[in-house]
Amino acid sequence: MAAFREEKDESFHSQHAPLGAFASFTIGLVDSPGGFGHALRGPARQNVYVGFRAGRKSAWRLLPFFAATKSGEAAFTGEPSSTRPPKAKTLRPRDYRRVLDWASDTWRADRERFGFSLLSPFGETADPVRMGKAEARRAFSPHLNGWIEYDNRRGKSPVQLVFGLGDPDSVFHPLTDSGLALPGFALGTQFAYATAPSKLVEMRQGFDVFAPKYRDFRGLCVLGGESGLIFTVPAGTRRRFPLVLAFFAQGIVTTGHPARYAYTRNFRNLEEVVAHGLDQRKHYETVAEVRDRELAATSLSDDQKFLIAQATHSYLGSTQLLCDDKAPIWVVNEGEYRMMNTFDLTVDHLFFELRWFPWAVQNTLDRFAAHYSYVDQIRLPDGRAVPGGLSFTHDMGVHQAFAPTGHSSYECDHLRGCFSHMTMEQLLNWVLCAACYAIHTHDVAWLRKHRSTLHACAESMRRRDDPDPGKRDGILKHDSLRGGRDGAEITTYDSLDVSLGQARNNLYLAVKTLGAWIVMEKALKLLGLPAEANAAALSADLVAQTLVAKFDHASGTFPAVFEADNQSRIIPAVEGLAYPLFLGLEAVVDRHGRFASLLDLVGRHLKAILRPGICIDAISGAWKMSSTSNNTWWSKIALAQFVVRRLFPESLSAAAKAADRVHARWQRSAACGAFALCDQIRSDTGVPCGSRYYPRGVTSILWMES
Which single residue of 72, 124, 185, 237 has CA 20 to 30 Å from 515? Predict the structure, then answer.
């Protein structure tokens, strides 16, 4: 069964992106442009012309990937400029069927005779350090494959197909001008599209690709902002024409630390990428087919499959593999914000990357340890500053600009809300990522190299509870002085209220601390350090005992914050359990085992809050992270659902189970769909309020573990 079949009222962009290129070809939103983009915070604004017509005298019927545009002809002729739609009939959603799968996006129309598809293949990818050139070219080629087809076997006359682009501000040129003997067009040295040579393919360019008026010696007008490929399908035949869409960015592309795209080591220019994409298209088509079948074979619902597929497309669009003179540098950019390797996203991308390319996790952790770590002080209640310990920055920079060593682009001083420091959050993230990477991959040698870092993290976690061992209960109680004497630490949930935004005495962060101690205990055992592993186990037990004592038996729930009589209730009380559960540490998450008392209370907490009016929105039926905030975070909902479905299925009411349909409907609606995957969405309206064009939703791959 396909991941999703579009309904009449559904409209959404998807990113179609090669791994590591930080570029995508974005289309799908009804009556909206899209097209080629590189390092953008949202979709490009090119008209994309895709469709068919039954003979040269019939009207074109086009998928709705364009808007009315001003003709560039008037700038040359001096005639009044006018806005014109293409001379075509625009297909409506009821006229076509869209299927978004894990590695493909396909539209069919005209009783299934017409088809158009773009592929975003991905799979297990070896460490680029160990790759030969041929393998690296295949793994990191900055291109997409696709096809356009028509079944004209019962037709009596030829049918024409079109794939083209319109952008008067960015004029394409024929690829033949660059010495590549393929039908296609390029925008400078950045973007190109092409097909295989054929007598059935015609190149067009001008001010109107559907009604060209001016022709040079090639039959083109290269001054015009519209270009296209016209394909002819003879009567009595069925033809599928291959497409390749390529991206290229030459030279140094970052500041702060100069780096270039890793693919430039294996491709000299855009034209080489185009030729490679066409030559190797069968390989990429096969990889995409395997991924699509893999998702289809799961027992997940169609809504869940759609959410995984849409999330993966957006994640790929944010990935970036760079290199300097020494080594590769892996970056995942934070969607519309374009922050580089935001650590509280890295810890959520962890599960996807460990499945397909675990070297990316190691690469990121090494860079955080070497360049984006620091040692701070903490503030005691009496105002004294004492040593805190090791931690890590929120991110590595923003919009291709690496931040100075030991600092992020996000964190500011003297704040108590958004843009403050996330010291404890990022400390836990390094521990969780490092332990999960080493345990999952059995890379004890790497873990041994970071033994001193792991010890420093353990000491830092304890000191942030309290510098005095006799006063510790396992929970963060002291803010980092990096935020200033009047500042306070926050969590990744920076735009929520105090229930999740405040780091100090926070339930979410406390359970995450528990998860970190549990996986650290296992990592230390792998290193053959029984005394240190036992100390980590005692710390985990201490956190669990404290949490049990914090349970409010009157309401049957945990308060979100253990101070100021907080009455908020939160779903991320389970988030820290995702990591030992993912690693298969069943003895730890056994409902009748070591943490039985705590897990029983967490189950009661979930059963009490996963109800309409608390953490199920009474209007929409969507899950809410907090009872006192209507800002949902879908990637975090997906993470919580993994834990709830595996460990606490009894807490899933009918309303809780029905929410996937709501979340999927939001992502398929025009409000969210204008920005591909959106993460922060208002629970009462379904309108996005932040985190658009976002990669974090790949936490949903955990559903395939369930």
Answer: 124
Say which residues have a Cβ less than 8 Å from residue 418's Cβ, sequence separation at least 6: 490, 494, 495, 501
For residue 602, which amino acid is it?
V
Give the integer Cα–Cα distance in Å for 32 and 26: 10
Q: pLDDT, tens digit, for every residue of 192-247?
A: 999 999 999 999 999 999 988 899 999 999 999 999 999 999 999 999 999 999 99
CA distance 446 to 324: 22
Torsion angle, alpha carbons of 535, 536, 538, 544, to 10: 170
What is the pTM (predicted TM-score) of this model? 0.96
Q: Alpha-carbon distance 659 to 701, whole Å?
A: 18
The residue written with tokens 């979709």 in the block is: 43
Distance CA 647, CA 589 (A): 8
**Cβ(254)–Cβ(322) below 8 Å:** yes
CA distance 667 to 674: 9
3-state secondary structure 622-652: CECCECCCCEEEHHHHHHHHHHHHHHCHHHC
What is the edge-to-edge ordering of all strands in the sheet holding 143-152?
A: 96-100, 104-109, 114-119, 143-152, 237-247, 191-194, 184-187, 173-174
- The residue type found at 621 is G
Q: Are 262 and 320 a contacting pair, CB within 8 Å?
A: no
- Extract the tokens encoding 509: 């962060």
**Which residue type occupies 615?**
C
Domain spanning 333-705, CATH architecture: Alpha/alpha barrel (1.50)
Q: What is the structure's pLDDT at 81?
A: 62
Tokens standing for 668? 């398929």
Q: β-strand 159-166 against 191-194: which pairing, if any?
A: unpaired
Distance, in Å, from the CA atom of 349 to the CA atom of 635, rounded to the nearest integer, reads 10
Cβ-proximal residues to 247 (8 Å cutoff; 6+ apart), any chain = 18, 21, 23, 36, 38, 142, 143, 190, 191, 270, 273
Best CA proximity match to 357, nearest among 700, 703, 20, 704? 20
Q: What is the overall mean pLDDT for the chain?
A: 95
Name residue, tokens 């959410």: 307
**Confidence band for 3, pLDDT divided at 50, 70 and 90:** very low
Extract the tokens encoding 70. 């001003």
C-alpha–C-alpha distance, residues 142 and 271, integer Å: 11
Query: Could you tell me whether strands 88-90 and 60-62 are parallel, antiparallel, or unpaired per DSSP bridges?
Result: parallel
Asked if 694 and 673 count as a contact pair (C-beta separation under 8 A), the reply is no
CA 365 to chain CA centroid, Å, is 19
Q: Environment class of residue 112 by beta-carbon count within 10 Å: exposed (0-12), middle (13-18) or buried (19+)?
A: exposed
